[in-house]
Specification:
CATH class: Alpha Beta
CATH architecture: 2-Layer Sandwich
Shape: elongated
Helix content: 40-55%
Largest sheet: 3 strands, mixed
Structural class: alpha+beta
Number of helices: 4
Strand order of the largest sheet: 2-4-3
Number of strands: 5
Strand content: 15-25%
CATH topology: Zincin-like
């Protein structure tokens, strides 16, 4: 285990914000946490109804998962923001009560974001 520093956390947040801008996810209200969640390097927990999200970065990096490097912190930030990008589709996919129009609208939102990026 390697302790992550405030500098590591700031790099993670900076990269997340860069990807949030890239993927046009600024309609989300996002809180960043430097936390002690066991068994994960980072996480993204979303609340679709309020467009709220908590993106967490570990205080203890598990080197057995992968080595802590700047490049891996950047990849981890991208990974969590991609979860945010797919949050509505994932939420609707897991819903027992899904309206077809909601799914179509969520898909259109994602497609339009990707068009603007690519």
């Amino acid at each position: 285990m390697t302790k992550t520093t405030k500098k590591d956390f700031e790099l993670f947040k900076k990269e997340c914000k860069k990807f949030i801008d890239l993927f046009e996810l600024n309609n989300w209200s996002i809180v960043f946490e430097h936390s002690n969640k066991k068994g994960m390097l980072a996480s993204c927990v979303t609340d679709i109804s309020s467009y709220g999200a908590v993106i967490s970065f570990c205080k203890k990096w598990d080197d057995s998962i992968e080595k802590m490097t700047k490049s891996n912190i950047v990849k981890l930030a991208l990974h969590e923001v991609l979860h945010l990008l797919l949050a509505r589709m994932s939420d609707y996919g897991n819903s027992r009560f899904l309206n077809r129009d909601e799914l179509i609208e969520a898909e259109e939102e994602l497609v339009n974001k990707l068009i603007n990026i690519l």
